[in-house]
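tool_call: predict_structure(chain=1)
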Amino acid sequence: MWSKRKLLAGLIFLLGFIPCLTAQMSPLYPDGDAKPAISAALAEAAKTHKNVVLDFGGNWCTDCKVMDIYFHQAPNDDLLRANYVIVHVNVGHYDMNLDVAERYGVPLKKGVPALVVLNRYGRIILVQRNGEFERMRKMDSTSVTEFLNKWKPEK
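tool_result:
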């Protein structure tokens, strides 16, 4: 028979998974052309003096999902909100938004996730060209922290 303590521990354990489950229900990378979202992000970045992160990936990509989890963990969540506007660019199964990837010089053959950082004027500051985060599931969240600290706008 289950004791009250075990039941409570089990309930708390299951409640910890609810945010993960709801995150899985809505796709991280929206379908469609990413250019309008990038334009909107640049307009917001210009007003708020933030940089823009273009996150190229796909909803099938485990490493992309891990990176998003790391984005929303402390201290990364605060760094992201304070310094960046993020746009998730869906590359599908390497058959969507290829023109956007080409425009920003993202070599999708190196894998995803791949990040581009733009300043508030839309100028490219960084393009990941070597699959730096392609193995995110084997990396620590501090790699995201270092990235966000390195490329945040100068205040």
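agent: The longest helix spans residues 35-48. Proceeding to next step.
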